[in-house]
Amino acid sequence: PTVLVEWARRQRGLVLRSDLSPLPGELLEIRGLRFVPRQTKAGSQVFFERLLGEAGLTMEDLDPCREVLSEQDVVQTVAAGRADAGFALASLAAGFKLPFVPLGEERFDLLVDRRAWFEPPFRKLLAFCRSAAFGEKAAELGGYDVSGFGTVHFNGA
User: Are 6 and 130 in contact (CB under 8 A)?
Assistant: First the structure.
């Protein structure tokens, strides 16, 4: 007995060194760039490699740097100039004022026990997430879309 409710959508894509010229506008244009990957089984790395495959590329078409453990590490590596590009969240790129090329979007959902749905703490969370302050913070972060928040995608009996 669970409810699957939409929380937010966020953009993932290429984070690029700001002094890179010309800036790649699509995935095919990163061939040969120093690229900072995540660890092999990280969800974002799996997603990125799927996008590479759809574009007819593999990691061997890039010049991979040392793997890092988080998307924050990806963006910091690019910002420090130790890599030309990486795959991370738009919000992280914005925080470092780095160029960003969107490549995909992912939806975050909350899976909630149906009884908890009606409990005061969860109702309070839902109310906050519908507030102007929440929407403004999401917009400030960049790359987040909370317009679908609260959409029920599954309501199991």
Answer: no
Q: Are 87 and 12 in contact (CB under 8 A)?
A: yes
| Tens digits of residue pLDDT in 46-67 | 999 999 999 999 999 999 999 9
Give pLDDT tens digits for 77-103: 999 999 999 999 999 999 999 999 999
pTM listed for this prediction: 0.86
How far from chain centre, in Å, is Cα 101? 12
DSSP secondary structure letters along 79-114: HTTS-SEEEEEHHHHHHTT--EEEEEEEEEEEEEEH
C-beta separation of 67 from 40 below 8 A: yes
For 131, phi then psi, to 5°, come to -80, 160
